[in-house]
Amino acid sequence: MIVWNRACERLTGVPAREMLGTRDAWRCFYGKARPTLADLVIQRRTGEVPTLYDSHQRLCEDGAHLAAQSWCDMPRAPRRRYLAVDVSPIVDDDGNVTAVVETLRDMTDEKQAQIALEQLATRDGLTGLANRRCFDDTLQAEWQRALRQHQPLSLLMVDVDSFKQYNDAHGHVGGDECLQRIATAVASEMRANDLVARYGGEEFAVILPNQSLKGAAIVAERIRCRVESLNLPNLGAAKRCVTVSIGAATALPSPETEAGQLIATADAALYRAKHMGRNRISLTREADGELPAYTV
User: Fold this and answer.
1) Fold of the domain spanning 123-290
2) Beta-strand (E) ranges in the chain?
3) In what side-by-side order are the strands of the sheet with 81-91?
4) Residues in the chain where the model's pLDDT stays below 50
């Protein structure tokens, strides 16, 4: 390290006297040893850039002028920061790299604003679950992945029973709190790669990648029991408490089918669960017949 200016001191919390003449600038940015972008250029290891940075680009065809962005731990600074880094090599008359200039920009506020906007675009404001837009995008992505990997894809459509009566009795504020508690209950039964979304109103949708119909039915029953155990009073319901009806469907995607068909099948199963008395699970049709409703 031959130059460490005042701006770098303020950014990292590390004075120049500690850095000049050293080779371990990484200590100012990361909790564990790893090369900086300048190190990668000097050591001719630029092929490792994609694995170490969130985003990157080459600023010219020679491949030595690079720009990258990533979160940095900043051990001596007040907080973790998102830094944009540009590097430019200095070469001698023979084309050999003699030094590298690394320029840092603090992009933390901009990155946090971007994350907040992305959350607004994909999260439901009331429940914190994925919203309809996120559900649609995720279902298409999971459908394509299931098609490539020849795996089943299951979908649950979950609807709160007699919710209008609950809203009438407890008001919209009480109705909102009810939906929030149900959202938490449904989300608590999910695996890391499952997605729970607020599909609309008092209806939720659950995407279960690589899950059979039998497995989907087990998840659905857990959700039904978890919601019933909340014991939210609803005099307009048969059980005198808030319950849900669930339609479960499973598909093995093929080039001739579309994700919309899975939604339609799960919706039909949900309708059957409602028609048969609510607070129950109904499964998808199979072959020429129909699986019996899974009742409680």
Assistant:
1) Alpha-Beta Plaits (3.30.70)
2) 55-58, 66-72, 81-91, 97-106, 153-160, 195-200, 203-209, 244-251, 281-283, 285-286, 289-290
3) 55-58, 66-72, 81-91, 97-106
4) 286-296
Domain boundaries, given as residue ranges, for the chain = 6-113, 123-290
Q: In this structure, which topology does domain 6-113 adopt according to CATH?
A: Beta-Lactamase (3.30.450)
Show the tokens assigned to 51.
Answer: 């694995």
User: Are the folds of 6-113 and 123-290 the same?
Assistant: no
* Candidate list 102, 142, 189, 202, residue with the active-site label: 202
Interatomic CA distance for residues 273 and 245, integer angstroms: 6
Nearest C-alpha neighbor of 12 from the set 76, 85, 80: 76
The pair of structure tokens assigned to 63 is 């491949």
Question: What is the C-alpha to C-alpha distance for residues 49 and 159, in angstroms, rounded to an integer?
Answer: 47
Q: Taking the C-alpha atoms of 15, 6, 83 and 29 in order, what is their torsion angle to the nearest 10 degrees?
A: -10
Angle formed by the axes of helices 132-149 and 259-275, nearest 10°: 120
Active-site residue, 202 included: yes
Return the C-alpha torsion angle 104, 56, 78, 21, nearest 10: -50
- Global pTM reads 0.66
**What are the φ and ψ backbone dihedral angles of 72, each rounded to 5 degrees?**
-125, 140
Per residue in 4-40, pLDDT tens? 999 999 999 999 999 999 999 999 999 999 999 999 9
